[in-house]
Specification:
The chain has an 8-stranded mixed sheet, sandwiched between helices. Strands 5, 6, 7, 8 and 9 form a 5-stranded antiparallel sheet that branches. The chain is α+β, with helices and mostly antiparallel strands. α2 packs across α11 (about 700-720). The protein has a domain at about 45-60 and about 75-110 and about 460-720: Alpha/Beta hydrolase fold, catalytic domain (Rossmann fold), CATH 3.40.50. The protein is built from 11 helices and 41 strands.
């Protein structure tokens, strides 16, 4: 069964370098002058003083200074004081921007509507997530069948006063007797597994810690489940620089009794994910190192001493388990099929035969689910969603077509479910949920979501522009109807471009508020993403990463040349790998934009891999500074290392969370410090650090509203 994606949610060796500190910390002397500059922004007369250290590292004969290395000591009192001084500057500055309260009010009003996840059926029971409007976290409901009265199964809003404890992921047992769910506190990637009895709607005593990136794989008899966790170090703390192991947890027992099932020794960057198949006789272990390829291995659960049996061990593409039928295991695969195909494996203690069931096409296969002996294949056709239904032999038996520009999600549930559900959404479509009769193939409207906004007043178009090397790149542009192409429109350009992730046409309250004000939203589908399969992804990785920035720059140039906007009225935004995108773009082409919003960004490309094994796994996209040719590519675009004194940079609001242990906040600290030091004009460089917030997942509603109100007000002031 597919996970409930509303709760689901990307990616440590020490650098071993010597830190030499020279000067001492100086208290903040920051201040804001009340007058505004021509761009509409108050001036910052003084930034907090930031000490520098004499730190130099030798990379393959190139000496690189790192004067803000001390900011990597995030938990030190010195760094905490510095962060506080930055917030003392940024928070009042943002609070006093003229449009800030207007944006907050409108965000609050537009956010306040009923929201539904895509439901799914397990053993005749219906499950879905719901938010009545401004609840900080979605509530998980359960009902007896499609027409049953919904009851609250778990309400995360009761778990913390400030709404910062969130449900990260869930997995129902095969008969829906139990729900295993993960909680995250304050946005951290570290999670704790709990188990709820669905009939009693109360938790068992089971509590499992040390979890970061793991799924949950139940045995068919619901006696327990497999999961992945990190070991404890000598200090008793779970250590994400060590090798992840797969454990088995028996229901009703303490974590200390959990049995270690398997580990790939001395492979700290290998992330194993378990699946149980063949009536509990076989454990499949899917192992990832990065995002382009993986291996799949099988282990007998009948024989405790059994060895791993390779299912796919050439690491020649991605292999993702769809489901099973009898002794046949179905997988999606990109091996010799960069846009994806479906294969089945006849497995009986070993691989007896493998065949392709659904061939690769010109469209990108994004996901497949197996229900009622049917394969529901979701495709991207020029980044727009479509669904084809096949039998288990690969014969197409149905197609679900959509006329609007949008994306589709769903088709979850147990494989014998009679009904499944899917949700259609778009930039100006908050969503309709449809029920699909698995036997008849009939769709019917299950739930229409109403926000009170007349979306007929808006339009979404898709254009294709030409990047620096001649590549055609798609981009969505959203705005009110009747927009004049006179270059006078405030425009936000958003991108990501990495890790095979596709930017799809999906509804966002925050973006809708931006567009509602008469502004333009542009979302570019850059190389490095998954919009056109593995080749598109690889064209934006490692030595070719500059292609991503060239694509983004070309998107901005297109918007100017086509009359949508001007450099004075255009801003850029991106988070995580998208934060890297914004950082690299503003250092390469500072005059093309007037505002930049890098969020939780990867900004020090020479040391990004040092905090954890997970961070080191990003090398599949980035490469490593330990390798000479990859170092040269990284050094050429690393935002931290490519700011230049005497340059006028766009007004920049750097944002991060103090609990972000995926892209650790010192990336943002160091970059903001360097940018403040090198800024040569009055455009402000601000660092806003959220407390009890992580990489983004699980952020409570009130915190999101406050954050977007700051960002949109900053953006509007910069683009006036």
């Amino acid at each position: 069964m597919k996970k409930n994606l509303i709760y689901a949610a990307i990616v440590a060796a020490s650098a071993g370098l010597t830190l030499a500190c020279t000067s001492s910390y100086t208290e903040s002397t920051s201040s804001v002058q009340g007058e505004s500059q021509s761009g509409g922004m108050p001036k910052v007369s003084d930034y907090p003083e930031t000490k520098t250290v004499t730190q130099q590292d030798n990379y393959h004969g190139t000496v690189v200074s790192d004067p803000y290395r001390w900011l990597e000591e995030e938990k030190s009192e010195e760094v905490s004081a510095w962060v506080e001084s930055q917030n003392t500057l940024a928070r009042p500055y943002l609070a006093e921007l003229p449009s800030r309260e207007r944006y907050k009010e409108r965000l609050t009003a537009l956010w306040d509507y009923e929201k539904y996840s895509t439901p799914y059926m397990v053993n005749g029971k219906l499950f879905y997530s719901y938010n009545d409007g401004l609840q900080n976290q979605y509530v998980l409901y359960m009902a007896d069948g499609v027409n049953g009265e919904p009851e609250v199964l778990i309400d995360p809003n009761t778990l913390s006063e400030d709404g910062t404890v969130s449900m990260a992921s869930t997995e129902l047992s095969p008969n829906a007797s139990f729900l295993a769910y993960m909680l995250s506190d304050g946005g951290t990637d570290w999670k704790t597994i709990h188990v709820r009895d669905t009939s009693k709607k109360s938790d068992l005593t089971d509590t499992i810690k040390g979890i970061k990136f793991s799924n949950i794989a139940w045995l068919p008899d619901e006696s327990g489940f497999f999961y992945s966790r990190y070991p404890q170090n000598e200090a008793g703390k779970y250590d994400d620089s060590q090798t992840v192991s797969i454990y088995f947890h028996a229901i009703g027992t303490a974590q200390s009794e959990d049995k270690k099932v398997f580990a790939f020794d001395n492979k700290p960057t290998w992330n194993p994910y378990p699946s149980v198949v063949q009536d509990g006789k076989t454990l499949l272990i899917s192992v990832f190192e990065g995002y382009q390829a993986n291996g799949v291995y099988a282990k007998s659960l009948v024989n405790d001493n059994s060895e791993l049996v390779p299912v796919f061990d050439k690491w020649d593409g991605r292999y993702d388990l769809i489901g099973e039928h009898d002794d046949e295991l179905f997988f999606t695969s990109t091996a010799n099929a960069p846009r994806g195909k479906v294969i089945k494996v006849d497995f009986d203690g070993g691989v007896k035969a493998t065949e392709t069931v659904i061939e690769s096409t010109s469209d990108t296969l994004s996901s497949v689910s197996l229900l009622g002996e049917k394969l529901f294949a979701q495709y991207l056709k020029d980044v727009k969603g479509q669904v084809s239904v096949f039998d288990l032999n690969g014969e197409k038996i149905d197609e679900i077509a959509f006329t609007d520009i949008g994306s589709v999600s769903g088709f979850y549930g147990s494989k014998n479910a009679d009904t499944t559900f899917y949700k259609l959404t778009g930039f100006t479509n908050p969503g309709q949920v449809f029920a699909y009769d698995v036997k008849s193939g009939e769709s019917s409207l299950f739930k229409s979501i109403d926000t009170g906004v007349n979306y007929d007043d808006y339009e979404t178009k898709q254009i294709f522009y030409t990047s620096k090397d001649g590549t055609k790149v798609p981009m969505f542009i959203v705005h009110k109807k009747g927009l004049k192409l006179d270059g006078n429109n405030k425009t936000l350009l958003y991108g990501y471009g990495g890790f095979n992730i596709s930017l799809l046409p999906r509804y966002s309250v925050s973006r809708m508020v931006w567009v509602e004000q008469g502004n333009v939203l542009a979302i570019a589908n850059l190389r490095g993403g998954g919009e056109y399969g593995q080749q598109w992804h690889k064209a934006g990785t490692k030595l070719d990463k500059q292609n991503v920035f060239d694509d983004f720059i070309a998107a901005g140039e297109y918007l100017v040349e086509s009359g949508y906007t001007t450099p004075e009225k255009m801003g850029i935004q991106g988070g995580s790998n998208g934060g890297l995108l914004v950082g690299a773009t503003l250092t390469q082409r500072p005059a093309l934009f007037s505002a930049a919003l890098p969020a939780v960004g990867v900004l020090d490309m020479l040391r990004y891999h040092t905090p954890s094994a997970n961070a080191r796994a990003w090398s599949s996209d980035y490469g490593l500074s330990e390798n000479k040719d990859e170092f040269e590519a990284l050094y050429a675009y690393s935002p931290l290392h490519n700011t230049k004194p005497g340059t006028c940079y766009p007004a920049t609001l750097v944002t991060t969370g103090d609990h972000d242990d995926r892209v650790v906040p010192w990336h943002s600290y160091k970059f903001a410090a360097q940018l403040q030091a090198d800024q040569s004009c009055d455009n402000p460089i601000l660092l806003r650090v959220e407390t009890r917030a992580g990489h983004g997942a699980g952020t409570p509603t009130w915190m999101q509203i406050e954050g977007y109100a700051d960002q949109w007000a900053f953006l509007e002031s910069a683009l006036n």
